[in-house]
Specification:
It is found in: Cell membrane. With about 475 residues, the protein is of the alpha+beta class. The chain is built from 20 helices and six strands.
Length: about 475
């Protein structure tokens, strides 16, 4: 018998057996038991076992500290007790009370975790969609050909079936069952639901207006978040041999009406409301909206709020057919490149010239972290140049009503996504680069400022020559 299996048997025996376990998880170093009756636990015996470093009780959870072999011991206990295996959780979840408190940083973290994995799909699909629009607009490709049909499907699939992609990433973030999360997305995207959008149906005597959930963001994120609590509660209060049937059935019975009657419509109309606010601002005072968005772009990225803008942009594209924020963000990104070029011309030290030129190339194609953390926030004065360049160019493209016709990365390589506004975008990009480069050169920099850890990490993302 292996040492891990022997340890697993002893731990299982001393926590009161499999009948005493309501939920069982592990993190990087600890086994985490939610138990029915703590009086059945023999902590002293567990702590005396070879391979156990100690025990801890936190928020009603028994934690057995194992160390590096925790995964192997966890797997053995799951086999012995007939429990479903789950992925390891973050040890930071120890502070459950702090975790329950809402904070804006927690919201940004959720959005970032859900959107970051699918950004490459957005980038590829967005550029492809823009290229197709260019080709059909100028008669190079007909929109009735088989080739167009294939490429259009490839470019639209990411956005149309976005609830499925977000269901997967949200399930990982909220530590819940991925298959059930995808099923929730399937409910939203069911053909009958999509086809009936705008009509009203009666559910439990309540009239509910169906909504077209393709390309939506907030409904599926809300649903998976709530489902994570529902699923966990049902799982913990169901005997192990019935879980495979009872947990998914009850989860669906709870989440299907909750999603279609409350969470889906709430998320859908909330997204429309935010989009309408930006539309109003860009209609009433477009230069002001562009100025604010463009000038604050460095701080938005610094705080992680740029990920919070992604669902707004996607909502604009879905409900309005265009997005007015992406053009501003694109020229503001070029401001970071211009800033780096100005600093490169002004710098005297070879090390600073090398790092700022690498940051310039990276920012030029849309990777701004080396520019912002390695140049702007490090040397401070160049940051003002980035703000001025982004603000002025942002006001210009907004005033000229530049629009994105599909989701696009804020970079010059995404120009096809701005079909119909490309001349305006080219002028805006030129303004952004020239103004920020000129201001950065004029403001100068203190080359004796040392790199902090964040600047050093950011430089690793830069393109080097």
């Amino acid at each position: 018998m292996s040492s891990n299996k022997k340890l697993a048997e002893q731990i299982l025996k001393n926590v009161g057996g499999k009948e005493n376990i309501s939920n069982f998880l592990h993190c990087a170093t600890r086994l985490r038991f939610n138990l029915i009756d703590f009086d059945k636990v023999n902590k002293d015996e567990i702590e005396s076992l070879s391979g156990v470093w100690g025990t801890n009780v936190n928020s009603g959870q028994l934690q057995v500290i194992i160390g590096q072999t925790v995964t192997e011991v966890y797997d053995e206990i799951c086999v012995l007790a007939g429990l479903e295996k789950n992925e390891g959780i973050d040890e930071k979840l120890d502070d459950l009370k702090a975790k329950k408190k809402f904070s804006i940083n927690a919201l940004f973290d959720v959005l970032s975790s859900c959107f970051n994995p699918i950004i490459p799909a957005f980038a590829g699909a967005g550029i492809l969609k823009g290229l197709l629009t260019l080709l059909t607009t100028y008669g190079i490709m007909g929109n009735e050909t088989g080739l167009y049909l294939m490429l259009n499907a490839a470019s639209d699939a990411t956005f149309y079936f976005l609830p499925f992609l977000l269901a997967v990433t949200a399930a990982k973030k909220f530590k819940t069952d991925m298959t059930m999360a995808v099923v929730l997305a399937g409910i939203y995207m069911y053909p009958t639901i999509i086809a009936g959008a705008g009509s009203s149906v009666e559910i439990f005597g309540i009239h509910v207006t169906l909504v077209k959930y393709s390309s939506t963001v907030i409904p599926i994120l809300l649903s998976v978040w709530i489902m994570s609590y529902v699923y966990r509660f049902i799982y913990a209060h169901t005997v192990s041999f019935l879980r495979v049937v009872v947990v998914p059935i009850v989860t669906l019975l709870v989440m299907a009406p909750l999603s279609l009657m409350i969470l889906g419509p709430l998320g859908y109309y909330a997204g429309i409301g935010v989009g309408e606010c930006f539309k109003w601002l860009f209609n009433v005072a477009p230069w002001l909206g562009g100025l604010i968005d463009g000038a604050t772009r460095p701080f938005v990225i610094l705080t992680g709020m740029h990920m919070a803008m992604t669902p707004i942009k996607l909502g604009n594209l879905s409900t309005l057919g265009y997005d007015m924020l992406a053009p501003v963000d694109c020229v503001a990104t070029m401001a970071a490149a211009g800033m780096c070029f100005g600093v490169f011309l002004r710098a005297k030290k070879a090390e600073n010239k090398s790092s700022t030129f690498s940051a310039f190339i990276s920012a030029f194609i849309g990777i701004t972290e080396p520019a912002l953390y390695g140049v702007a926030f490090r040397f401070k004065k160049p940051l003002l140049a980035c703000i001025i360049g982004g603000g002025i160019s942002g006001a210009f493209v907004a005033m000229m009503q530049a629009k994105a016709i599909t989701y696009a990365m804020p970079a010059i390589i995404s120009l096809p996504a701005y079909t119909g506004s490309i001349p305006v975008m080219l002028i805006g990009l030129a303004i952004s680069f020239v103004v920020s480069a000129g201001c950065a050169y004029a403001l100068g920099l203190d080359e004796n400022i040392k790199k902090d850890q964040r600047a050093a990490e950011a430089e690793k993302k830069a393109i080097n020559f």
